[in-house]
Design a protein that fits this description.
alpha+beta; 5 strands; elongated
Length: 186
C-alpha cells in the first residue's frame, strides 16, 4: 500500500511484529476511519500486558519510522471468516489506548491547555496529557498542517516544522511561547 507517498509492505510489518517473543499472531491494515488519510494499525494476539511503547520500540529497531504503525490493538483472537481466513472487515477500529498515550499528566498553563483541546479535536481522543506525542497518538503530516491552522485561529503561531521537532504537547507549547516572545521583541 501507499501512505503519504511511502510504499509500505504490510507483510513485512507483520513479520517483524511476530518476531516479538510475546506476540503470537499479527495483522496490519492501512485504515481510513475518518478524514486525514490512512493510518497503519497493527492487531496482535499474545501477552495482553505488552505496551504500545514496547511494540513501537521493537519495530523501530528494524523498520523505518514511516512503517511503524500508529496504533496497536490487542485481541484475544484474530477474527476469521467461515473459510478460516483473516476477516479484515471484522477488525475493530483502534481506540484511545491503542495509540500509546503516556501516563497522563494534565496540561499546564493556557498554551498547553489550548493545544490539548486542539489535539483532542483533531485526533478524536478524549484526553491529551502534556507528555503525549502528536504522532504516537495518531497524528501525521497532513494533520500537522491542520494543527497549525487551528493553532493560528487561536492566536498560537508556529511553523509546521516545529510539530516535527517538538512533537510532545509540552515541547510544542514551549516552542509556541518562545515564538511569541521573539515576535514581541521584533
Amino acid at each position: 500500500v501507499k501512505i503519504r507517498g511511502f510504499r509500505i509492505e504490510l507483510g513485512e510489518i507483520e513479520a517483524r511484529l511476530a518476531e516479538h517473543p510475546a506476540v503470537r499472531e499479527t495483522a496490519v491494515l492501512a485504515r481510513e476511519d475518518g478524514p486525514g488519510g490512512k493510518r497503519l494499525v497493527a492487531y496482535y494476539t499474545g501477552d495482553a500486558e505488552l505496551t504500545v511503547d514496547d511494540l513501537r520500540v521493537h519495530l523501530a529497531e528494524t523498520l523505518p519510522e514511516y512503517m511503524v504503525p500508529a496504533a496497536f490493538v490487542h485481541l484475544e483472537a484474530l477474527p476469521l471468516s467461515p473459510n478460516g481466513k483473516l476477516d479484515r472487515k471484522a477488525l475493530p477500529a483502534p481506540e484511545g489506548d491503542a495509540y500509546g498515550a503516556r501516563e497522563y499528566e494534565a496540561p499546564q498553563g493556557e498554551t498547553e491547555q489550548a493545544l490539548a483541546d486542539i489535539w483532542a479535536e483533531l485526533l478524536k481522543i478524549e484526553q491529551v496529557g502534556r507528555h503525549d506525542n502528536f504522532f504516537e497518538l495518531g497524528g501525521h503530516s497532513l494533520l500537522a498542517i491542520s494543527l497549525i491552522e487551528k493553532m493560528g485561529q487561536r492566536g498560537l503561531v508556529a511553523d509546521v516544522r516545529v510539530v516535527f521537532t517538538a512533537p510532545t504537547l509540552a515541547k510544542l507549547a514551549e516552542a509556541v511561547e518562545e515564538e511569541q516572545i521573539m515576535e514581541i521583541r521584533i
